[in-house]
Amino acid sequence: MAKNTAKQGLKPASSSSNFVAGWGFWLIAFAVLYGPAWYLGRESVFETERNSFVPWVIALTLAAVGAGLLSFAVNYVMGIRAESVRKQARQKKKKK
């Protein structure tokens, strides 16, 4: 499998030349999304359960999943951008 990834030009995520939205980005996105998720969780349960842990669990789940999807999207876009930069560099090198 290592030979296959080398042929495709993939680099490990720990490479300093690539931007990776890691746990820090996920934590910031989680903190930002927690407020709206808490409000949505509180409004989506019955009034008798609003003072229980149900809205908190809903908010934690929604914020975690939302932050994960946002981190995935940012990593995907940054990967596409990095690949296009590498292609342009190869094309310039090939022209010389």
Topology:
Elements: H1 2-8, H2 23-43, H3 54-95
Helix pairs in contact: 2-3
Which ranges are low-confidence, i.e. pLDDT below 50, for 5 or more consecutive residues? none
Can you write the helix and strand succession as a string? HHH
Gross morphology is rod-shaped
What can be said about the biggest beta sheet?
A: none
What is the number of independent domains? 1
- SS content category: mainly alpha
Number of helices: 3
Radius of gyration: 20 Å
Question: What is the overall pLDDT average?
Answer: 80
Strand content: under 5%
Instruction: Tell how many strands the DSSP assignment holds.
Output: 0
Question: What share of the residues lie within helices?
Answer: over 70%
N-C termini distance: 33 Å
Protein model, in words:
The protein has 96 residues and is mainly α. 73% of the residues lie in helices and 0% in strands. The protein is built from 3 helices and no strands. Helix 2 packs antiparallel against helix 3. The two termini are 33 Å apart.
Can you summarize this structure?
It is built from three helices and no strands. With 96 residues, it is mainly alpha-helical.
Structural key phrases:
96 residues; 3 helices; rod-shaped
